[in-house]
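Example: C-type lectin domain-containing protein.
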Amino acid sequence: MYFFFSGALLSVSSAQTRQFYFVNTPLNWRDAQSVCRQNYTDLATIENTADVSISNWTVNPRKAWIGLHDDIVNSWRWSLSDSSFYGDGESTYWNWYPGEPNNYDGQQLCVHFYGAVNDLWDNYCSVEYSFVCYTALLQNLYIFLSEW
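Written out as structure tokens, the predicted fold is:
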């Protein structure tokens, strides 16, 4: 996006940062998602190793729901389905524990993060765990490019 101001060209871009919140109230995945969407942005999306470190810090050594789930149609996806939110490769960063996901009984469609080992595990969505939410914060950056 560009704006023209009396002889100057100004570029506006947005940078997104996330703040994570550990909620120490055991709920099933759907209820946890609902709480996160009502009070924050959504269940946590882990996009890279930095997010794993942050999530581990908030969860360690507990198990906690995050936003990854299997919607059966498109396979594994994050709770926040807005594809414009993700950068290159970020929507497919999944650090599975060895042997996971195993979709035991064909019913393990939700994912929890296990802080003790920094890995993801699939599980039944009805199990109650604490959970990690996040708030997305947009920051506009204004960059002066040139004069006319």
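The CA atoms of residues 1 and 101 lie 41 Å apart.
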